[in-house]
Amino acid sequence: MATFNGAEFLREQICSILSQLGPNDELVISDDGSIDDTLAIIGAFNDGRIKVFINEGSRGYSTNFNNAIEKATGDVIFLSDQDDIWLPSKVEKCLKELKKSDFVVHDAKVVDYNLQILMDSYFDYRNVKPGFVANFVRIGYLGCCMAFKRKVLDKANPMPLKYKVITHDSWLTLVSEFYFSVSLIDEPLLLYRRHGSNVSNGGASEGNSLAFKVYIRVFSLLKIVSRFRIC
Questions:
Q1: Is the CB of residue 21 less than 8 Å from the CB of residue 49?
Q2: Segment 191-211, tens digit of pLDDT
């Protein structure tokens, strides 16, 4: 989980996660210099499964998230935003699917500030489709709905985030679809909260120029193909 001034919704999100973790699991949090009560809320849980890493200076959304991912030690990694709600069967159903796939993405209900449902299915809203080509044309997967095996991260690293062209979750999507087996769970396992202070935009921007979109795709393809030379 990456946090930044997320105090308003953070407690509820952490509760929804910890209730599904075992005694040997971990919740890794990277904080990007929060100046609200974010760190106090995290500390109040007093739970040994929570591991907090505080950045020196602001790194930005994707780099902060990547810092959390790199600090994770588990064989399976779930990504989490700071303001959503994990539904009770999320971990169980993702782990079951990961027995036959390397990378799993599930559907989500889109909700507002007060958790009122705006859309019953993010998959339907974004017309999400599996496969490398479909996601190369337009990334359809939400990072907060991803779970994957350690070997996916090993192939994805080092992530090309310093170029500020592609986000961590888009990169993980393309690497997974190109190199690994991917499964979609056509069931909402998360309440995906949309509100005015969200850090991420819930999908690639539709407002970029055509030239920039082409540039992103060429850049991504070259970076992905180059991984053939990395063992």
A1: yes
A2: 999 987 655 444 444 456 666
DSSP state of 227: G
Right CATH for 2-229 from 3.30.160.20, 3.90.550.10, 2.40.320.10, 3.30.200.20: 3.90.550.10
CB atoms within 10 A of CB 212: 12
Among residues 150, 135, 16, the alpha carbon closest in space to that of 80 is found at 16
- Tens of pLDDT along 136-152? 888 999 999 999 999 99
Q: Where are the domains of the chain?
A: 2-229
Q: In which element (H, E) is residue 188 found?
A: strand 182-193
* Nearest alpha carbon to residue 20 among 76, 77, 79, 88: 88
From the list 163, 154, 132, 148, the residue with the least C-alpha distance to 63 is 163
What is the distance between the alpha carbons of residues 82 and 3, in angstroms, rounded to a whole number? Answer: 6
Say what the pTM is: 0.86
Examine residue 158 and say whether the peptide bond preceding it is cis (omega within 30 degrees of 0): yes
